Every structure is written in C-alpha cells, then in structure tokens.
Amino acid sequence: MPEPIFRACDLTKVYGVGEVAVHALRGIDLALYPGEFVVILGPSGCGKSTLLNILGGLDVPSGGQVWYHGQELSKADDAALTRFRREHVGFVFQFYNLIPSLTARENVAIVTEIARDPMPPEEALALVGLGERLDHFPAQMSGGEQQRVAIARAIAKRPVVLLCDEPTGALDSATGVRVLQALEHVNATLGTTTVIITHNADIARMAHRVLTLGDGRVVGEARNAERIRAEALRW
Predict the structure, then answer these.
(1) What are phi and psi of 63, to 5 degrees?
(2) pLDDT tens, 132-181?
(3) Nearest-angstrom CA–CA distance, 24 and 37
(4) pTM of this prediction?
(5) CB 3.0-4.6 Å disulfide test: which of 25, 75, 107, 202 passes with 13?
C-alpha cells in the first residue's frame, strides 16, 4: 500500500461542556490513500460532517491527531490551515453557493485566479460535462448543472483531495446520479482522492471503500471489489 494521504489517530471532538457536552467524534482511527474514492455512510448526527470538516482544515479536533502527508493538522494554526485548504483541498457542499450574477465560466474562474497551478475554467467545466454551458448563468441551469459547476470550481485548482458533504442531498435521484457520475469521472481522470459523506447507502456502490460511522465511531469498513477490479482492467 502507498503512504496514506490522511491519517487520523484517536480523533475526538466535543462541543460544549459539562451536562450539555456533545461528543461528535469518539476516537476515530482512519487512513485515506492517494486516488481513493471513499464513501462515509451514517445517519444524521453520527459525526460525518465533523470528521470531514477536520480533514479539510475547517475545524480542529478536541483530542487525537490528524496528519496530511506528514503535516500534523491538529497542531496547525489558522494561517497554516488556510494555506492547507487553499493549496490542497477542494470542497463540494450540499448547496451550490454560486454567484448568481456570474456565468458558469466566471464562477469557476474565481478559484483559478487564486490557485497556484489552475486548470482553465473551460477544461474544468468540460470534465463535468458542461462544456456547452460556459456562458449560462445559474438561473438558466438546473440544480444538477449548478452542482456540477460547483464541482468544476472545486477541481479547477487541481486539489489533491476533494471533500464532498451530501453533494446530492438537494437533488432528485436521477439528477443526483449525474452528479455522482461527474465525481466518479473526476476521480478516475485526475486521480483526486475523493471523499463523500452521505446517509444514502446506494452511493456506496461507486466507492473503492466504504466507512460506516455510528455515534462518533467507525463501526464498519468494506471494500468494493467490483469497482477496484473494473479499474484494474481498464488500466
């Protein structure tokens, strides 16, 4: 096995104190590897979003350690976490957060203007199947298309890691499938380590590996042999 991109050891997160304390994470151990497509499953309130936020440098743990390529994020200050997010991580959230007055191309270009080695907005949009929608505004696009613009914006800075928080949560099932296919294509084409958190078990069929969370702990792990075998045959 290659060296992990992320490694977490006994990760905990507590919100509040005393009788009102909420234990969101209760000793998470995990490793994420280059190029993996990982789905993290679990019901609402099990700690999925908290874990994703800590991996992405949006939050810090209450205890334990998390490393990214040997850099201990759990000890990083705000400036270091900001650099980490800017240079290494792309985020896709449930809601698209596009600027209504900008076209698809312009929404993606916002990120390319601050990235070190960005891909052209046109290339990023083509990767998610929107090469013919470059100059359309969000109001002229469906929800699935807007989410694919958000994915293009996230990948345009060529992140090492793509973290997705319920990316199909606001979409109908058919539209959600197209968004997931776009994420799968990005993972296969760019080799971007991709992590999706969801409560939808059907999404797990697309993953190399599935982690199941319950009450702030990893309670299950499974590998998708069919997906791994199909990729090995393709290469």
Answers:
(1) -160, 165
(2) 999 999 999 999 999 999 999 999 999 999 999 999 888 888 888 888 88
(3) 24
(4) 0.90
(5) 25
